[in-house]
Automatic annotation (TrEMBL):
Signal peptide per UniProt: none
Biological process, per Gene Ontology: branched-chain amino acid biosynthetic process
Keywords in alphabetical order: 2Fe-2S, Amino-acid biosynthesis, Branched-chain amino acid biosynthesis, Iron, Iron-sulfur, Lyase, Metal-binding
InterPro entries in alphabetical order: Dihydro-acid_dehy_C, ILV_EDD_C, ILV_EDD_N, IlvD/EDD_N, Sugar_Degrad_Dehydratases
The keyword Iron is assigned to this record: yes
Domain annotation Dihydroxy-acid/6-phosphogluconate dehydratase N-terminal: ranges: 36-344
Dihydroxy-acid/6-phosphogluconate dehydratase C-terminal domain: residues covered: 357-553
GO MF annotations, alphabetized: 2 iron, 2 sulfur cluster binding; hydro-lyase activity; metal ion binding
KW Coiled coil (keyword) present: no
One Pfam family matching this protein: ILV_EDD_C
UniProt record similarity statement: Belongs to the IlvD/Edd family.
Organism: Umezawaea endophytica
Listed name of the protein: Dihydroxy-acid dehydratase
Amino acid sequence: MPEQRSSQWYAGDDRNAYIHRAWMRRGLPAHAFDGRPHIAIANTASDLTPCNAHLNEVAESVKQGVYEAGGIPLNLPVVSLGETLVRPTAMLWRNMAAMATEEMLRANPVDGVVLLGGCDKTIPSLLMAASSVGLPAVVVPGGPMLTGTFRGVPLGCGTDVWRLSEEVRAGTLSQEAFTKSESSMIRSRGHCNTMGTASTMGLVAEALGMVLPGLAGTPAADSRLLEAAHDTGRLAVEMVAEQRTPAAVLTRGSFLNAIVALAAIGGSTNAVVHLLAIAGRLGVELSQDDFDRTGSDVPLLVDLQPAGRFLMEDLFRAGGLHAVLREVSDLLDPTAITVTGKPLVDYLDTAEIWDREVIRPRADPLLPHAGIAVLYGNLAPDGAVVKPAAASEHLLQHRGRAVVFDSIEDMHARIDDPDLDVDADSVLVLRGCGPKGYPGMPEVANMPLPRKLLQQGVRDMVRVCDGRMSGTAYGTVVLHVSPEAAAGGPLALVRTGDFIVLDIEARRLDLDVPGDELALRTPDPATVAAFANPQRGWERLYVRTVQQANTGADLDFLTGASGSDVSRESH
Ligand code: FES
């Protein structure tokens, strides 16, 4: 058997090897330490991450596969982030989860790792960690929940919360009916079933090559998930033998494949920051502009909420990711391999579309050009992103008067004020929501529309923010404005009444204020006072070292890889 990394702990007759083996021999036989690969199962199961609560069962199937292939599986609970519960925003903790997982993989005697994720930040943080450690790694996405229905109509989780709550605010749905829908939304185990961030990142992880081909998108409650988890355990042992590390799989070509997939599925804008952060860990050249350059000519083929009609269970039934990718296979890098060692494109030939309403053929796309547009201008010198597919046609080119909010508290306090000077043409601006300013870059950019405009029938307005938007949301929302207001970005200088010009076709976002006047402006004290200024703990470290959204919002000292070597012993 080849020398394993774990043998640095277990091989030999000295006192240290004795200690390492002895404490592990609670159920493990002596031959567990004969040089066979030890596979960590980085497990984000947690009762407080309801989307991942089933992952212990998935881990058991992975374990069986690892044993069957001659390896030793080891459950490694890692930091888990429940999107709906964690305050002030799960994104604040993504880098912490990535750092903690990276360090625990490096610190422990493991030779490879199976990454179990699901809810929004869990797959990104696991991939960031694995990329930095450089051990062979493979992802098992936990899968979406089954479709829930209310009054005979499917409910898309997330998306329909926004829609129904707006209906309540507009007075077209009773509070009682709204409350009743709550128990129908989450039908089964699994993550959100819209094309939100969790669904997106599971599918994108497979397009990157980091998932057993054909697995991503399998519903959490489907028995095929456990079968694939078993196979993934077997694969992890093979990957250690081949030393197939993340750096071997994740090339620039794989990231560009992921961008093509992201566009074709109409995936979440959050994938931009996550993919940039993962690429940053590997030193793979990837910029925000790659998303526009590579993605914007890709047709939108998947008709899923939030922008469309169907849900993840429908996508799986209709043929899944491979059926989508087969339609755009000419746009994929044929050399980009997967965790199996074979190219992604090799798996697409037999894929078929079984429901052409859910997955549209290339010749009949939902939109000829999907993807994510990156805007520049004097309001976003380092860029901002917008998802044209989720925007309203009549707002793609727009000039409107800014109504500015310094924080989400300010916005909530005033947005429904009948005296707020706002109309349907106004541009709502929310700042102080970037990585440093909030801190953590929350999903607040899709701010609610003023009640008085909702009651007039207005359903979309241009919104501009340095924060993020939930992948389950929709609307003409310009987000990730970089630099953010709290990092000296010109967004801090906008005043209510200024005109903002959005031109998505021209990729522009500008403040219509003369340059000499803008140069003389400084942020209002109230604007600065709203920025976070934490004095201790992770938040302080985060605010001082986090980078901007246009490069992935990772901490500056976490970019790059450190490998898996640890030379010093603790005793
Ligand atoms: Fe977990 Fe949506 S809340 S995926």
